[in-house]
Design a protein that fits this description.
This protein has strands at 2-11, 20-25, 32-40, 46-52, 65-67, 75-79, 86-94, 97-107. By secondary structure, it is mainly β. It has a single domain (2-93), classed as Sandwich (Jelly Rolls), CATH 2.60.120. This is Peptidase C-terminal archaeal/bacterial domain-containing protein.
Length: 108
């Protein structure tokens, strides 16, 4: 397993609670077989992760995969066919602060 990308975000407490940030991602591995998307949020919060597998903009109501209600460290693992692109949404249900969003790819 080789981590391929990571990103950081910041909610400074001035309106972050209940807000969302969205990102796009396309695999970098030549022939990917799976991907794990994980989020590490602040210890005093409840952050959710939503994913689309066609690159479209996810919402809390329209997405392909979700890790919701799992506290500050939600994670989603997916098998890939090789031509996916992803839309990612980080949503803060409660709390604020810095978070890290990681995407790990595995090749065939």
């Amino acid at each position: 397993m080789e981590p391929r990308r990571g990103g950081r975000g910041l909610g400074d407490g001035s309106g972050w609670w209940g807000e969302s940030k969205r990102y796009g991602y396309s695999p970098l591995t030549d022939d990917p077989c799976s991907i794990t998307i994980s989020l590490e949020g602040p210890s005093r919060g409840d952050f959710d992760l939503y994913v689309t597998t066609d690159g479209s903009r996810p919402t809390r109501w329209s997405h392909d995969e979700a890790a919701a209600g799992s506290g500050t460290a939600p994670s989603i693992a997916l098998d890939l066919e090789g031509d996916e692109s992803f839309g990612l949404q980080v949503h803060a249900n409660s709390g604020s602060g810095e978070y890290t969003l990681r995407v790990e790819e595995r090749g065939r």
